[in-house]
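Sequence and structure are kept together here, with a separate record for every protein. A complete record is shown below as an example:
=====
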Amino acid sequence: MNSSLQLLVTLTGVTLLFGCAQANGTMEGAARQALRLCRGRAALLPPVFFLLAALLAMVGPGAILSTALLAPFAMNTGFRAGVPPFLIALMVGNGANAGNMSPFSTVGAIVSALMTQEGLGGHEFRVWFFHGAAHLMLAIAAYVLFGGLTLFRKGSAESVPAPPPMQPRHALTLFITALWIAGVAFLHWPLGWSAFGAAALVLLLRLASLKHAVVHMPWKIIALVVGISTAVSFIEKAGGLAWFQQLLARLATPESVHGIIAFLTGAISAYSSTSGVVLPAFLPLAPGVAAHLPGVDPLALSISIIIGSALVDVSPLSTLGALCVAAAPEGSHRAALFRNLMIWGLAMAFVGAAICYLWAPLFSV
């Protein structure tokens, strides 16, 4: 099958399945049930929001949809419990990104398909591990620096509102989704076609409405990714990628290339789409750049591209940060939240470069 067509099948299948889960309320219900585990302890809210965002992104919707689903509830609940809005925003954004490279998520499917096209398939869990580890490390740092330890000393806060009970359609949707994930992970089902099958089962059982599920699918991202992937293939045939690979190889050394490419992708991703623009444009460069630099592993270079481009996504100029600012309740000083997220997001271009420079030897198989 043509690579662009395969990418289209994968993206539409995965996003349709989780469009169904979002449309029938399964995702929101699962998130609210999990939050009850906090039992009113404000200090537990930030890590729980991180884990919830990661789990939601991990099992399909991706970082943007997971943040859109969780941010309104998280920002309001956290503010009411006395948690700094900046800390909540960082936890939701970094948590969603931590789960974003799961091979079962929308963006994970994009990355898996792009890397397979370049002969780097089969490393999905390695990519996910290091990508998630970088975001977890930054989330821990944010918790320590921006009020998490203070919350422990304050003790309990207002309890989280009781969620509505999970209905049979929610439980059955979760069961079908879990079967699909198990099939992909252990039986090697084709990601896109098996997702279409799971979505068809959900729709045939009338657990969700096709009309509402389609509304929740990120059609613009799908079109953008497939379009850029096709354009990149034409540019490659015209020799454009080879020229850029040679240019980057002349500017970088085998020791510095991981930090340079992480910084470059981070700087671009701060004001553009990570999954729609940066990854489809830069991941195809990894094998060629590595070939020009002795001892550089294309897999390690790909992981540097992925981490560098993702760490800046909490910037308010990026979708995740913008969703958190928009969800901040009245009285939470949105202007200060915007400023703090802007500073953090821009700083992450440098932090991402440093992480990839230091961790590069670990990325290789």
Observations:
- DSSP finds 19 helices and no strands in the chain.
